[in-house]
Amino acid sequence: MAFKKSIPSVGMLALYAMQFAPSVLADVEFCPNDTPLSCSSPSIEPSCCFNSPGGAFLLTQFWDHDPSIGPSDSWTIHGLWPDNCDGSYEEFCDESREYSNITAIIEESGRTELLSYMNKYWKDNSGDDESFWEHEWNKHGTCINTIEPACYTDYTAQDEVVDYLQKAVDLFKTLDSYKALAAAGITPSNSKTYGLSEIHDALSNIHEGFAPYVACDGDYLSEAWYFYYVRGNLITGQYEPSEKLTESNCPETGIKYAPKSGGNNSTSPPTTACPAPARR
Ligand SMILES: *[C@@H]1O[C@H](CO)[C@@H](O)[C@H](O)[C@H]1NC(C)=O
Ligand SMILES: *[C@@H]1O[C@H](CO)[C@@H](O)[C@H](O)[C@H]1NC(C)=O
Ligand SMILES: *[C@@H]1O[C@H](CO)[C@@H](O)[C@H](O)[C@H]1NC(C)=O
């Protein structure tokens, strides 16, 4: 438990609770307010209060129209990924914490709301949500150093899995891409097309002015990745929206935003499970 800091005062704890209170307070390391922002310096050692080497976090979303996945008026969750501050990333970092029972883990934790939200908004495009969640945790979640078991003050096996999924959901709820686009007049259509800069502008409105990376599948809008740096621990830290580290593969103009649950006249091929380059 080399990461433990001295026990904070009651006043500090109260301040901490006011400023950083997540939806469910996890028993993770307390981090002081002057904790440096992730990716701010390569010389800072990884700790439970400093995400490294994966210090950039991406909350990633799909717009899956063919097949149509999830509610027709919402994007869906892809994942929450650590990146090495430069667009590269580590994956599958701890085989001993890879799981094939994510649903059971959430059920055992008692977070039924989390599970029902995931059943609606964290959808696999081939219908196997459990496998998709396993893939996201095993590949990306295990690489986040600030949620390793040693960072918990009162650890029960798989606590970090549920905290990680909850964090992804909590971030997703603050990033309503559908609504942001609609507010700028960008709505799903079989006939209209849109420009990349207007999509960037519309989505930057919900991310403190920083446009997410948007991906296209051919001409079809298909993903959005919102970047953050984090001050402190992944679960209890402060998220600061940041510049994307990857350039869009979409055309500058003529982007299609296809309606879901229609698929009428769509010529885009069905997207495949994780191995495809953009689907990670
Ligand atoms: C999930 O799987 C892990 C590893 O096999 C096991 O230790 C744990 O008890 C399982 N959890 C539930 C709720 O089944
Ligand atoms: C798709 O086309 C069929 C037949 O033309 C029509 O009945 C249906 O309403 C259309 N669906 C959407 C979402 O446009
Ligand atoms: C779909 O294609 C048919 C014929 O190709 C056309 O008549 C129809 O208007 C199209 N529907 C939409 C929603 O674009």
From TrEMBL:
Keyword Oxidoreductase: no
UniProt-annotated stretches for the region Disordered: 241-280
Presence of the UniProt keyword Disulfide bond in the record: yes
Domain of life of the native organism: Eukaryota
Keywords: Disulfide bond, Endonuclease, Hydrolase, Nuclease, Signal
Biased composition range(s): Low complexity: 266-280
InterPro entries assigned to the protein according to its UniProt record, in alphabetical order: Ribonuclease_T2_eukaryotic (IPR033697), RNase_T2-like (IPR001568), RNase_T2-like_sf (IPR036430), RNase_T2_His_AS_1 (IPR018188), RNase_T2_His_AS_2 (IPR033130)
Annotated signal sequence range: 1-26
Enzyme Commission number(s): 4.6.1.19
Pfam families: Ribonuclease_T2
Family membership: Belongs to the RNase T2 family.
PANTHER family, A to Z: RIBONUCLEASE T2 (PTHR11240)
UniProt-recorded name of the protein: ribonuclease T2
